[in-house]
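Re: [ENG-882] Designed sequences occasionally contain unexpected residues at chain ends

Forwarding the minimal case from QA. Structure tokens:
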């Protein structure tokens, strides 16, 4: 019986580990289409911002890099805000942005700090939510909601994390992304905001 259980556990470990291999073929931001469009624009046009604004719609819809740069006279900023961005998404994007940037390339990052709230049913099935739910942020959310006795928050966090590690409804999207099969035409308004207004 013990040998059987060990074999099952070993199989699960190998199976889950094999599912994580797909992450090595994808950029960290692949699950968030808005971030994909903004960072692709930066990379394709050799833009090198030294300042970023990251957060939810409060950042995305209200901070204008062009105006900010005209006031500071020394920044070249870009708005990486995304509507509905949650706190752990903000930290996930920020952490990876720093890790994947050249040394001393980024001088300032302005983050929106919001209180944690449970991931709602509409969000925890989305790619962007699942992709950014690393073990670090899973544990962070779990500890916070446990301390707050927010059992809905605990339930939704666990649900999202298990979708992440088992790549539930993620592998097909990952394949399409890798082979560029899901390339969408950017809405003219969004395209203008990215190209002319630095992401605003």
């Amino acid at each position: 019986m013990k040998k059987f259980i060990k074999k099952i556990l070993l199989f699960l470990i190998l199976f889950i580990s094999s599912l994580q291999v797909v992450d090595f073929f994808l950029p960290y931001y692949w699950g968030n289409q808005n971030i994909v469009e903004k960072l692709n624009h930066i990379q394709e046009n050799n833009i090198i911002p030294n300042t970023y604004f990251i957060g939810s719609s409060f950042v995305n819809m209200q901070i204008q890099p062009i105006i900010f740069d005209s006031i500071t006279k020394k920044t070249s900023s870009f708005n990486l805000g995304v509507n509905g961005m949650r706190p752990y998404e903000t930290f996930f994007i920020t952490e990876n942005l720093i890790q994947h940037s050249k040394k001393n390339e980024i001088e300032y990052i302005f983050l929106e700090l919001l209180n944690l709230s449970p991931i709602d049913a509409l969000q925890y099935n989305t790619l962007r939510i699942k992709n950014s739910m690393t073990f670090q942020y899973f544990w962070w959310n779990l500890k916070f909601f446990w301390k707050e006795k927010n059992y809905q928050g605990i339930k939704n966090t666990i649900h999202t994390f298990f979708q992440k590690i088992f790549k539930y409804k993620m592998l097909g999207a990952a394949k399409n992304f890798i082979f560029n099969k899901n390339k969408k035409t950017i809405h003219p308004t969004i395209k203008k905001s990215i190209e002319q207004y630095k992401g605003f």
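QA comment: On inspection the terminal residues look reasonable. The first strand starts at residue 51 and ends at 54. Proposing we downgrade this to a documentation issue.
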